[in-house]
Amino acid sequence: MAFYNLKMMKNKRVLNDFVRTHCFVPLIGVAVLASANIGAVERKPHKVGSTDVTSLVTTSFGYGDNVFRGVSNEIGSAFLSVKPVVQAIRETSQQQLSFAYEGDGVAFFDSSDDNYLSNRVSADYVRKLTSNSEFNLGAAFHDGSIIRGVDITEGTNGDVEGATDFTRSDFSVGYAIGSPKVGPSLELNYNYTDLEFDNFEIINAGRDYNLNELTARFGYQYSVATHFFLDLADRDFEYDAPVPFLGQRLDNSEQSIHVGVKWKLSRLTAGEISVGTTDKEFDNFSDPRSFTTWNAKIEWTPTARDTVYFESFSKPFEQAGTGIFQDVDQASLSWKHDVSRRFSFSGGITMGSVDFGSAGRDDDIDSFNIGLFYTPSKYAEWSLNYEYEDKESNIPQFDFETNKVFLSYAVSL
Known about the structure:
With 413 residues, this protein is mainly beta. The chain has one domain (2-411): Porin, CATH 2.40.160.
C-alpha cells in the first residue's frame, strides 16, 4: 500500500501542474460558477465484487449580481448547480485500475440560454513493475462548457449568449523509478491533448489545437521529509487554422527548466516550491519570449484546528482572444478554522495579473471568499459561501465586478 500512497500523492501533484499548464481558463477559478469547500466530506465506499465504488454529489443554489462578468450589460440571476462524481477502483498488490465520471450541470433562472451541462470521463491504469518502479497509462474525454463572460467571451456578453462549448481528449503514459525513502528517482511522462471549440465559430476560429508534451523529473530523496528535484518540459502546440485577426496560426513550442524542493515536516508544514525559466517561440512570429516562472504550494498547520494554505504561480498560457499569449501571475492565501467537530469556517483572497504582451492589454484581478460549514456526518456537509471578484483592465471593455452568495450541500451516497 505504501507504493500506491506514493502514487496518489504524485497524481495530485501532476493534476495541479496539468491544470496550470494547459487549462485555457487560467485565473481564479473562473470556469467554476460555485464551488463549496467539500474537503471534509469522506467518500462512502461500496464493494462491487473486488471493485471499490464511491460517489459524491454537490448541489448549490445561489444568486449572482453579475453572473456573466459584464461591463455595461450586467445580468443578475439565481442559479442551481449539480455536480456528481463517481469513481471505481480495482486494486491488487501489483496493479490499480480506476474509472471516474465528473458532471457539472448549471441552470440560470433568468437566462435559460446560458444553461449548460459538462461531462468528463477518465480511466487510469498503474502497474507496479518492481518494488521501486511503476508504469502508468491514462485517458480522459471532456465534453464541457465555459460560462459566458469567461475566456474568449470576456467583455462580449452583450453580443453573445450561452456558454462556450468544447471537447477535449487526453492521453498520457508515464514511468517512475525510485525509493520513497532515500536516494535518486526519475519520473518520465508523455501527454497528448486534442482541444476543439464547438460553437461561436467566428470568435473561436483558429483556437483549436493539438498538444504534445514531454516532461521529466530528476529527483533526490534527501530524507523521509525532504525531496529535491529538477523538472524539464518540452511542449509543442499545433493549431488547426489561422487566427483571423492575426492572419497566422499560433503554432508554438515551449521549453522549461525548474529546480525545486518538496517537504513534509511532521504535521506542521508541507509544500513544494520550484523556480526556473520557460522559453516560448512561435513558428510564425519573430518574437521569442523568455519568462521567469515559478510554482509554490505551502500548507501550514499552526494548531490542531487551523490550516493555512498558500499557492502561487507565474507562467505563460495560450491566447484567449487578445494577443498571441498570456503571461499570468497569481497568488492565493486561505485559512480554515475548525470551531468544533461539526462547525468550521474558511476565508481566502486571491490576487492575479495578466500581461498580454505586445497587444498592450494588462488585467489585474482580485477575489475574496468566505464560507461557513456544518458537517452533520463524515459523509455530508452543508456550506454557506460568499464570493467577490473584481477585474481592472487598461481596456475598459474588460472591467467588471461581481458578487455571489450560495448555499451548498455535498453528500457521499
